[in-house]
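To the team - phenylalanine complex, inputs and output below.
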Amino acid sequence: MDGKTIAKRESWASRIGFILAAAGSAIGLGNIWKFPYLAGQGGGAAFVFVYLLAVAFIGLTVMLAEFAIGRAAGLDAIGSFKKLAPRTFWWVTGAFGVLAAFMILSFYGVVGGWSIAYIFKMLFGSLANLSGEEYSNIFVNFITGTTEPILWQLVFMGLTIGIVVAGIQGGIEKWNKILMPAIFVIILLLIIRGITLEGAMAGIEFYLKPDFSKIDGSVILAALGQAFFSLSLGMGTMITYASYFSKEDNLVSSALTVVGLDTLAAFLAGFAIFPAVFATGLAPDAGPGLVFITLPGVFDRMPLGTLFGVAFFILLTFAALTSAISILECVVAFVKDQWGWTRRNAAFIIGGIITLVGMVCSLSMGVWSGFTVPFPAHGNLNFFDLMDVISSKVLLTGGALLICLFIGFYWKVENAISELSNDNKLSFSWLPVWGFVVKYIAPITILFVILNGFGIIG
Ligand code: PHE
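Output:
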C-alpha cells in the first residue's frame, strides 16, 4: 500500500448510494430464505420478537463498530486493522473476515444459481400441477445434479463479478440503486397477493401471534447468529463499504437506516410468505425447503401464480446478487489495497477461484456427497455445509467478537465515538451506552453464540 493508492481510492457518489449498497449487502438470502423458515420453526412472532432484540442490541452495536473502523482507516478489512493497530496481531480480525467472505461466497453463489434457475422453471411451467412430494423431488434432483446447478452458479457468479469489476460508483452503487427499490416493490406486490387470498388470516395470525413456549436457549442463540449473518456483520464487509464513505457523512444515522431496512425486509418477507402458505393449505415449518419446495406449490395453487412465482424468484435473485457483490468486494478490496492488484484482475481472478470452490460445494450435494467431515454439534457435513458452518458459526461470530474487543480494549471506545460523531460535530447522547455494550455486553453475548455453535451450551 502506498500513498498513491490511498489518494486514488474510490468513494460513494452519494450518501443514499452508500445506504442502499450497505442495505443491499444486508438484505439477501438471509432475509428472504432463512428468516421466514427460522420464524416458521421458532414459534412465529415469538422468534420475531427475540430477533428484534438481538438486532437492536447486538447487531446495531457491531454495525456501528465496523462503520467506525472502516471509515477511520479508509482501507480494506485487513488493512484497516494494520493501520489502526500497527505492529500488532489485530489484523487477524480482518483475516477472519476475508476468509469468511471467500467461504461464504462459494456456497452463496450456488444458492444464487438455484434462484435464477427457479425463475425459469416457474416461467416454463416445469413447476405446475405437481404433488408436494414431486416439488421436493424436483428440487432434490436439481441440486444434486452435476452440470445444471453449476451452469446456473456460473451465471450468478458472472453477474456478481461483472458488477464488482465496474467499480464502486459505476458498478456496486449503480446496481444497488436499481435493484434495491425493485426488491421492495416485489415484496409489497407479493404481500398484497398473499393477504388477499382466502384463508390468509391464519397465516397472519401465525406470524404475528407469539407462541413463547417455543423459545428456549437455542432459539435465542439462533436469533443472534441470524442477526449477524443477516446484517452482514463480523466479516469486514461493512468495514470495507464504510471505507468508501466520506468524512462528513453521518455514520450513526446511516447504520440505523441500514439496520432498519434489513429488519423491515426480513419482516416483510415473512408477510409475503406465510399468509400464502396458509391460504393454500401447506405447512409453514418446512425448514430450508420452505422457499424452493413449499413456495412453488403455493404459487401453483393461487390465481396468477406463475406471474407471482416468477416475481418471487427474481426477488430472491436480486437480493442474493446485491449481497454477493458486497462479499466479493470485501476480498477484492483486500487484494487491491494490500497487494496493489487492479480491481479488474482482483475481481476476475479472486471471483474465478471462489467460483471453482463453489463448484465443489455444488458437487458435494450430489456426486461428491460421500465425502464428509465431522464437526462438533453438527454431525458429518458435506463440503457445502462445512463452508457454511465454519464461516457463519466460527468466522463471522469470531470476527464480531474480535471487532468488539478491538474497540473496547485496544483502539478505545473514545476514539470510536469520536469517529462516529465526526469529531464531536454531531452529538448522540447514547453513544457512551454503545461504548459499554461494545466493550462488555456484546463480547459476552457473542461468546455464548460461539459456544452454542460448537454444541458446548444451548
Ligand atoms: N447479509 C447477507 C444475507 O442476509 C449475507 C451476507 C453475510 C453478506 C455476510 C455479506 C456478509 O443474505
